[in-house]
Automatic annotation (TrEMBL):
EC class of the enzyme, as a word: hydrolase
Active-site feature positions: 81, 143 (proton acceptor)
Signal peptide range in chain numbering: none
Name the record gives this protein: Glutamate carboxypeptidase
Peptidase M20 dimerisation domain ranges (all copies): 178-275
MF annotations from Gene Ontology: carboxypeptidase activity; metal ion binding
Length: 375
């Protein structure tokens, strides 16, 4: 069976540069759609069947590209949005290549991986390489804020699929990901009563004090031995030192390793809502991403990928990761999902973000061969 020619890491880096120089903060739908449009044009030109779902709620569009074939597909999904605001390239993180490292906002998380998925599908079609199964490629606009608009299209594409591949960044030692924690996000708002802090303190009800107590309760839910963590940030409250604060609030992040634990934490945090002594506490939110649990089918998919990687000259160990991804959704559906298939590097969401660019070609070749050969 002929294999797709991927090209050199130098060639891949040159085209990836254009993706990185096109800044795509999640909050700018037009910017994200600009890059979606470039990918769409390239995929149309080689014969992909295209569906473009218009964005909503301030987010960009979702692009779905399909290759010919019958039967359960192999799905590959990557996001084009980044956490970096416009101007980051000019102000603090310019594109640069220094030795083995290529730097730029979003290059590691996850433009290198999404580009590899796009490039693989484009070249499979352009070179007319026959695959064992049809391929569905999704390029999405909002993963960095929990995939509020792209989750449904991802789950629709994954329904009945043979496997799902997620080219999120590789972990330490180039590891791919076979399990992830589930993620919950909440907002707590506390409503008190305003008063002069000196003249009539007794008439006020500080919203900050009960919030502080709740923060300690939330922090106490952390259990490192079981893999449960909670984090409160940001927090806010009050207006001036001489005013009893009538409003306060915080955002809450929680990570869990099982669905029952997520349900337990969700119940406990929502139970903190209520009203007493002039104070009203509201809680919104819940579990956003279910845990991705390693199954025998996921382990088998990893072994297949590891064998392919060995042919391309590198090892592909596996790891369990605390951060969530779109792979959480598809794994929870029971679809074998292999994550972390993107490029090596470091610094996701950090100023030193970079990839090890010489790994672009071998990592992309492994992803491409998985797309070609999964039966």
């Amino acid at each position: 069976m002929p294999r797709t020619e991927i090209g050199t890491s130098e060639r891949l880096l040159e085209e990836l540069k254009g993706w990185v120089l096109h800044e795509t903060p999640t909050t700018d739908a037009a910017a994200v759609n600009g890059l979606i449009g470039k990918a769409e044009a390239e995929l149309r030109a080689v014969g992909a069947a295209i569906e473009r779902i218009p964005g909503r709620d301030g987010y960009g569009d979702t692009l779905i590209a399909r290759t010919p074939g019958e039967g359960p597909p192999v799905v590959v999904a990557g996001h084009l949005d980044t956490v970096w605001d416009h101007g980051t390239l000019a102000s603090s993180m310019p594109w640069r290549v220094e030795g083995e490292k290529a730097h730029g906002p979003g290059i590691y998380d996850m433009k290198a991986g999404s580009f590899s998925a796009f490039h693989s599908v484009r070249e499979i079609l352009r070179q007319k390489v026959k695959t064992k199964r049809p391929i569905i490629l999704l390029l999405t606009p909002d993963e960095e804020v929990g995939s509020p608009t792209s989750r449904a299209p991802i789950e629709r594409a994954a329904t009945g699929a043979r496997a799902v591949l997620i080219p999120e960044p590789a972990g330490a030692g180039g590891a791919c990901v076979t399990a992830r924690k589930g993620v919950g996000r909440f907002v707590m708002k506390v409503h008190g009563v305003s008063a002069h802090a000196g003249g009539n303190w007794q008439d006020g009800r500080s919203a900050v004090v009960p919030l502080a107590r709740k923060i300690l309760e939330i922090h106490a839910l952390t259990d490192l031995a079981s893999g449960t963590t909670t984090n409160v940030a940001p927090i806010w409250g009050g207006t001036r030192p001489n005013v009893v604060p009538p409003e306060a609030g915080c955002e809450i992040d929680c990570r869990v390793t099982s669905v029952p634990e997520g349900e337990r934490i969700e119940r406990l945090i929502h139970a903190m809502a209520g009203e007493a002594d002039g104070i009203r506490i509201e809680v919104e939110g819940g579990m956003n991403r279910p845990p991705m649990v390693e199954t025998p089918e996921i382990a088998a998919l990893h072994e297949m990928a590891r064998g392919i990687a060995a042919k391309h000259g590198y090892d592909l160990p596996k790891m369990h990761r605390g951060g969530g991804s779109d792979g959480n959704f598809t794994a929870a559906m029971g679809i074998p999902t292999l994550d972390g298939l993107g490029c090596t590097g470091a610094g996701a969401h950090a100023p030193h973000e970079h990839i090890l660019w010489r790994d672009l070609a071998p990592r992309c070749a492994t992803l491409c061969e998985l797309l070609e050969t999964i039966e």
